């Protein structure tokens, strides 16, 4: 049967996975039906018994946890999700590749890995700090994008710093040690369309985040997996929760006490996924090294000091274009 392609058909409107999206057998997701992990810690931030201990334990054992009763209004979360859904469903976005950096945001629907294999996703990325300077540099279609996402990021700021302060206290560091030089720096939203054969493709390859912490809002979708004892485990979906994971910078500052863990996204045959990841990063000029209070004779420093900007530059996965976006924000100020 002939497949009819109209002018609005998209790259994922296919019955077979195109060759350029097929990963080699060693990179492919095996075992797609691993049970949803029922032990990923779910932390209720409204509980009066201090959740700090649970956050620390989860960050040591898994590098991942979910938070509920976190104080972010549901409406702000669902509005953000729906405006991004609208963005990704707009029939013609400006380009099929990277939108020029001078706009202050990047959209792509065809990025590929270093082996040249395409990943099964579209991505929109922009800077978020300082929020009042960045907002006007974001997409203005849909027309309510800037307003809705700015409201979302105000809440994400509050929640992210609250979590960082809890981690700080749990590690025995002085208040502000993690927050004072940090910012909710980048928003990266992913759209993973349904895929004819999820066993051949990946939405995002295994990676670690270069952040301090990352918050992911995934609506009611699944697909995010993390590595635990050599096995890929599904992060379940809990309504109105955020997934929090520890990034490389916090692993360094904690001198290895907290762990930045490999994670990836697998695709689904019948469901789409939209995720909103926000990266809480050190400001670019900050020097990151193990906290002095956590280094002693028995526990010598395990990581070299590095300026965050240089760390990002070395780690091209995110570094190359987010630093270029930063130059747009600076030139606007
Ligand atoms: C990331 C990431 C997960 C997701 O952007 O670093 O891991 O669900 N995202 O999109
Ligand atoms: Ni990640």
TrEMBL record:
Q: Which UniProt keywords apply?
A: Iron, Metal-binding, Oxidoreductase
Query: Keyword Oxidoreductase on this protein?
Result: yes
Cite the InterPro entries for this sequence: DIOX_N (IPR026992), IPNS-like_FE2OG_OXY (IPR044861), IPNS-like_sf (IPR027443), Oxoglu/Fe-dep_dioxygenase_dom (IPR005123), Plant_2OG-oxidoreductases (IPR050295)
Entries under PROSITE patterns matching the protein: FE2OG_OXY
Q: Name one GO molecular function term.
A: metal ion binding
User: One Pfam family name from the record?
Assistant: 2OG-FeII_Oxy
Q: Does the keyword Oxidoreductase apply?
A: yes
Q: Where is the Fe2OG dioxygenase domain?
A: 180-282
| PANTHER family the record matches | OXOGLUTARATE/IRON-DEPENDENT DIOXYGENASE
Please give the family membership noted in the entry: Belongs to the iron/ascorbate-dependent oxidoreductase family.
Protein name as catalogued? Flavanone 3-hydroxylase
Look up and give the organism this protein is from: Artemisia annua (Sweet wormwood)
Task: Give the source lineage, highest ranks first.
Answer: Eukaryota, Viridiplantae, Streptophyta, Embryophyta, Tracheophyta
């Amino acid at each position: 049967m002939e497949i009819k392609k109209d002018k609005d058909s998209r790259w994922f409107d296919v019955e077979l996975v195109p060759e350029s999206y097929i990963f080699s057998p060693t990179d492919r997701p095996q075992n797609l039906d691993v049970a949803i992990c029922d032990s990923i810690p779910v932390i209720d931030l409204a509980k009066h018994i201090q959740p700090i201990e649970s956050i620390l334990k989860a960050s040591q054992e898994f590098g991942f946890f979910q938070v509920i009763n976190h104080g972010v209004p549901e409406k702000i979360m669902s509005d953000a999700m729906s405006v991004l859904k609208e963005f990704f469903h707009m029939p013609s976005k400006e380009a099929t590749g990277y939108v020029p950096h001078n706009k202050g945001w990047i959209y792509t629907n065809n990025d590929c890995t270093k082996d040249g294999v395409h990943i099964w996703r579209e991505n929109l990325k922009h800077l978020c700090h300082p929020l009042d300077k960045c907002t006007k540099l974001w997409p203005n279609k849909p027309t309510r994008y800037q307003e809705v996402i700015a409201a979302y990021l105000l809440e994400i700021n509050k929640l992210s710093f609250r979590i960082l302060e809890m981690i700080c206290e749990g590690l025995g560091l002085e208040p502000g040690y993690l927050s004072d030089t940090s910012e909710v720096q980048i928003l990266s939203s992913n759209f993973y369309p349904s895929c004819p054969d999820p066993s051949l493709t990946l939405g995002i390859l295994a990676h670690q985040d270069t952040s301090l912490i990352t918050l992911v809002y995934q609506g009611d979708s699944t697909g995010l997996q993390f590595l635990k004892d050599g096995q890929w485990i599904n992060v379940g979906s809990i309504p109105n929760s955020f997934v929090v994971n520890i990034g490389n910078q916090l692993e360094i500052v904690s001198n290895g006490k907290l762990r930045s863990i490999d994670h990836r996204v697998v695709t689904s045959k019948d469901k789409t996924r939209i995720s909103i990841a926000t990266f809480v990063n050190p400001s670019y000029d900050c020097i990151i090294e193990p906290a002095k209070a956590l280094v002693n004779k028995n526990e010598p420093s395990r990581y070299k000091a590095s300026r965050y900007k240089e760390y990002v530059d070395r780690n091209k996965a995110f570094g190359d274009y987010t630093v270029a976006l930063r130059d747009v924000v600076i030139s606007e100020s």
